[in-house]
Write a structure and sequence with these properties.
Layout: H1 2-5, H2 28-53, E1 55-59, H3 63-75, E2 80-84, H4 87-96, E3 101-104, H5 113-121, H6 126-129, E4 132-137, H7 142-151, E5 155-158, H8 163-175, E6 180-182, E7 187-189
Parallel strand pairs: 1-2, 1-3, 3-4, 4-5
Antiparallel strand pairs: 6-7
Length: 204
């Protein structure tokens, strides 16, 4: 999805070790490569610390679906994961304790994920209203994707999703935070207008 992919930068790639380079015999090219490698290692460490230190809330009316998302989060280092089976349960958790990232299904009753996103964005408590929301849906039709964007989600993923993709999207939101907008008709992260949309699905 262009409006989502624009928030994602490639994960750092570590430079391959160079044989026979010791001390002062390293030339300028090798020095630059080693510096890039060190920078990449630092960025990866920061990502791992950030993901493990965040608090997640998985919202889905299917217990099996919740378990799959929880397992995927655990695989990328998440340690603090709450869950809720509907909108009421999600709001209860959000008001009871701090949450950094909400992984939210859309196809729920009696309130859909898109409807719940609108409620969250209009919450009087800033820590609730400005929480990161990543929608995970089994449907990827254009009207639904755009409705989710206009409700205020940060990311839209299509089921089934891999642990790798979830990790990349969480890191992308952390690395490239968007200004939070508040207007009469929209509350949420800054939207990117005029771009073609197409949801991201499972990979690898």
């Amino acid at each position: 999805m262009a409006w989502l992919r624009g928030t994602v930068s490639p994960l750092p790639t570590l430079a391959a070790p160079t044989d026979g380079v010791h001390g002062d015999t390293m030339d300028k090219h090798d020095s630059k490569t080693t510096g890039q490698a060190a920078s990449g290692m630092g960025a990866k460490a920061d990502d791992d610390v950030a993901i493990s230190g965040l608090r997640y809330l998985v919202v889905d009316d299917s217990r099996n679906a919740r378990n799959l998302v929880k397992q995927a989060l655990a695989m990328v280092g998440a340690r603090h994961i709450d869950e809720a089976g509907d909108a009421a349960g999600a709001l209860e958790v959000l008001h009871a304790r701090p949450v950094d990232v909400v992984m939210l299904d859309n196809e729920m009753t009696p309130m859909t994920g898109i409807e719940l996103t609108r409620v969250i964005r209009r919450d009087p408590e800033p820590r609730v209203a400005e929480v990161i929301i990543i929608m995970v849906s089994g449907f990827s039709d254009q009207p639904r994707v755009m409705a989710a964007r206009d409700a205020g989600v940060h990311e839209f993923l299509v089921k089934p999703v891999s642990a790798k993709l979830i990790g990349e999207r969480v890191k992308a939101v952390l690395r490239h935070p968007r200004p939070f907008e508040r207007s009469a008709d929209y509350i949420g992260p800054e939207r990117r207008r005029g771009e073609a949309a197409g949801p991201d699905g499972a990979d690898g």
